[in-house]
Design brief:
This protein is α+β, with helices and mostly antiparallel strands. 30% of the residues lie in helices and 15% in strands. The protein has seven helices and six strands. A six-stranded antiparallel β-sheet has the order 1-6-2-3-4-5, sandwiched between helices. Strand 3 and strand 4 form a beta hairpin. Helix 3 runs antiparallel to helix 4. The longest helix is centred in the N-terminal third of the chain and has 27 residues. 33% of the residues are buried. InterPro entries: Amidase_6 (IPR024301). Pfam families: Amidase_6 (PF12671).
């Protein structure tokens, strides 16, 4: 976006009169020029903040905060209040809603703490990293943090994500794994958002082919004034915290499908 030019100093394009024809500026001249440039720089910064952000806020919303997420965006370090985010979630892919840690069970809190600490990581000595396709690897890690234990189908190779089991690292294989394990999770469609909760797993089928192309971890479920429900998620590839599901399936991948796994307590 473009920003308005900062207010100009009527004398900004001119040197002090005593410098005309002089070879070297005096120390007083340098001080005057520095003060004028500093004032203009401050004005420009304030203008950008006011116009670009609409407001100035301190901190950024995440569970322990003020620290995340999770931001599209998280990188802006700006706290977005729930009421503002719910007005247009598709306009702000990483909204940074504040997570109410007190409402979470110990296991889910541990899971979300792990996700918050690792959503933008690019390597793990314990779990490794899959270049350009690490979303399911992170989701699996979060479930270990939650208390899940490995089994014959879902397991990881220490430091080598490429050698971990298919169910650990592949979104489609993980879907098939959970379909055979109703004790671990219950499948939900997008029409069942009212049953989705923080810590659940969200999966996307970008091309509506029946497989799963992307996986994330639900970070927030927001009920708006009109009764509609927004689901936010975190994940790897690309690094995301509090991204809107609606943004993902309308802006990033228009027409894509979304599904959820309600993780058993």
């Amino acid at each position: 976006m473009s920003y308005p030019e900062p207010p100009s100093d009527p004398h900004d394009d001119f040197e002090p009169a005593e410098l005309s024809g002089a070879d070297e500026p005096t120390e007083d001249d340098r001080r005057r020029m520095f003060r004028r440039r500093r004032a203009l720089a401050v004005t420009a910064v304030v203008t950008v903040l006011a116009v670009g952000c609409g407001f100035v806020a301190i901190g950024w919303a995440s569970a322990t905060q003020g620290a995340p997420s999770p931001a599209e965006s998280a990188e802006d370090s700006v706290e977005v209040q729930e009421s503002a985010a719910s007005a247009d979630t598709t306009a702000d892919p990483d909204s940074g809603l504040e997570l109410d840690w007190a409402s979470l069970s110990t296991d889910v809190a541990a899971q979300m703490e792990y996700v918050e600490q690792n959503w933008d990581s690019t390597w793990s000595d314990e779990y490794g990293f899959i270049d350009e396709n690490d979303c399911m690897n992170l989701a699996s890690q979060s479930l270990i943090a939650r208390g899940w234990v490995e089994d014959d189908e879902w397991w990881y190779a220490v430091g080598d994500a490429y050698s971990s089991s298919a169910a650990w690292r592949s979104s489609t294989a993980f879907m098939e794994y959970l379909e055979s394990r109703p004790d671990l999770a219950t499948a939900l469609t997008d029409d069942q958002r009212d049953q989705v909760k923080v810590g659940d797993i969200v999966q996307f089928d970008w091309d509506v082919s029946g497989d799963r192309d992307h996986t994330g971890i639900v970070t927030a479920v927001v009920t708006n004034d009109d009764g509609s429900i927004d689901v936010l998620y975190a994940g790897h590839t690309d690094a995301t915290w509090d991204r809107s599901v609606d943004y993902a399936i309308t802006e990033l991948h228009p027409g894509g499908d979304v599904y959820y796994w309600s993780i058993a307590d």
